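Replying to the earlier thread about multi-chain prediction with a worked example.

Input:
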Amino acid sequence: MKERAMVPRAEFGSYYGRPVLKKPVWRERDIAGYLFTGGVAAGSALLAAGADLTGRPVMCRSARLTSLAALGVSGVALVHDLGRPERFANMLRVFKPTSPMSVGSWLLSAFAAPVGVAAVTEATGLFPALRRPAGLAAAAIAPGIATYTAVLICDTSVPSWHAAYPEMPFVFAGSALAGSAGLSLLMSPAAENAPAVRLAVLGSALELAASKRMEGRLGLVGEPYGEGKAGAKLRLAKALTVAGSLGAVAFGRRSKTAAVVAGGMLAAASALSRFGVFEAGVASAEDPVYTVGPQRERVSARN
Amino acid sequence: MTPRMGFFTDTTVCIGCKACEVACKEWNRVPDDGYAFLGQSYDNTGELGASTWRHVAFVEQPRADGDLRWLMSSDVCKHCTHAGCLDVCPTGSLFRTEFGTVVVQEDICNGCGYCVPACPYGVIDRREDDGRVWKCTLCYDRIGAGEQPACAKACPTESIQYGPLDELRERAHGRVEDLVTAGVTEARLYGADPSDGVGGAGAFFLLLDEPEVYGLPPDPVVPTRDLGAMWRRAALAAGTFVACGVAAFAGRRAR
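Result:
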C-alpha cells in the first residue's frame, strides 16, 4: 500500500543521490530482536514482582522464567551481533555515561544477576529466602532496561530515530509492558490473569498514544514509519495491539484459550513494533532526503 | 602542550588527481574496497568508508555559457570537536589523541557498530570481513614523528593543508576573502565555525557550492548534544512503566 506523502518535498542538491549517512550495521534479527526480548525481560521482571507480592504463585513463576529466558536470548543476540564477538567483555572495560550502550551494558549486567537468582531459585526450590529479594532487585532495575534501548537508538544521527527521542522511551516502555503481559497471559491460569489484563491495556494504551504523538509530530522524518515494510509491520502491530488488549479484557480472565490467543497477539505486536521501528530508522538513513531536508530547513530558518 | 592539529582542504585548487586516496591507502595499508564502475563522473570510489579514508568527489555542473564547471573535493574524517563516534563508543576504543584528533584503537574495538550511525557525516564504517570499525587516523603515527599526514604530503596543489588548527582557520578565512575579492563570491568555509553542531571540525573545507552538492550534510549536529534531554525522557518513561505496574496490581489481592 503506497501512502501519499504528507509533507511537500523541498528541492535540494545531493551527490549523485547517494546517502549522506552510513546506515546501521546492526543485524536486524539481533538488534531489533533484542529490543523486543530485552523489553519483555524487563516487563516480566516487573510482573513477577507484582505477582509475588500479591500472592499469584503460578504467574510469578512463569514471569521469572520468562524474564530469564528473554534475557538469555538477548545476551546471545547482543554478542552475536558484534563484529568481534570474542571481545564482548570489552563492553565492561570502561563506564561511559556519554554512551547509552555502555550504560546499557552495565545495566544489563546488574539486571542479569537478580533475574538469574530469582529464576533459578524459583525453578529449583533452592535458597527460597533469596527468591523475593532477588525478584524485587530485578524489578527495580527493569524500568531502566525497558527504556534505555530507546535512548540507545535515538542517540544516533539516524534521522527518524534521533528526531523521535521525546516519545521513543514511552513507545518502548508501553511495548515492553504489553508484550510481557501478553506472555504472562500465555502461561498463567485464567484465575491469576487480572493484573496481566490490566497491564496489557495500560501498556497498549501507552504505546499507541506515544506512537501516534511521535508519528504526528515528526513531519518529513516521520514518513519512514508509515512506508514500505516498516510501515506494514507497524500497522499490523497496532492492529494486533488493539485486538489483543480488547480480547484480553473481554475473555482473558474467563477462558484460558482466549487468554492464550490474546496474549499471543500482544507478544507478536510488541515484536513487530520493534522490527518496524528498526526498519524505519534504517530506511531514513538510506535516503539523503531525510538527512539533508531537515538540516537545509534549519539553515534557511537561521539565515 | 601540543596544539590541536587538523586539515584545511581548499577545494578550489583540487585537480582531482586522487594522489591523496592512493597515498592514504599505501601508508595506512588500507585494503581495497572493490573495483566498482559507478558512472559518477571520475569518481569510482563513491564515499568514505572503512577502507576509504580519503574520497575525492567529482561534480560536473553546467555553466551559463554552455560549458561545464568542475567541483572536486577530497573528503576525509572531520575529527570533530564534539565527536559522535567517540561519545557513543562503549569500549573506549575510540579516543582523543594529544593532537585533538579522534582515533580507533583496533586492539580494543569489538565491532559493536554504534559509532557507525552516530557519525553525522557517514564517515566511520565496519569492515565486514574484519569485524572492526576503521577510519582516518590523521596519520597518528606520522604526525607523532613530526611528519605530515600522507594525503597532505602527496597533494601536489596544496589543496590539502595540514597544520595547527588555529593557523589553518586564519589562513582559510584569508583565502575566502581573497577569493570573494577576486569575484568568486560563492566561496565559503565548511566546518570552520567552533559554534556549529559539532563544535567545529578538525578537518574543514573551502567549498564553492552548498555542502550537500559534495555529499556533505549542510548542518550536522552531534547526536549526543541531546543526550541529557533523552535520558530525562527515558526517566519519565521508566516512571510511567513502574506506575503502570503498580496500577495493574493495585487493589485486589488474589487470595
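DSSP finds ten helices and no strands in chain A.

Feel free to reuse this layout for your own posts.
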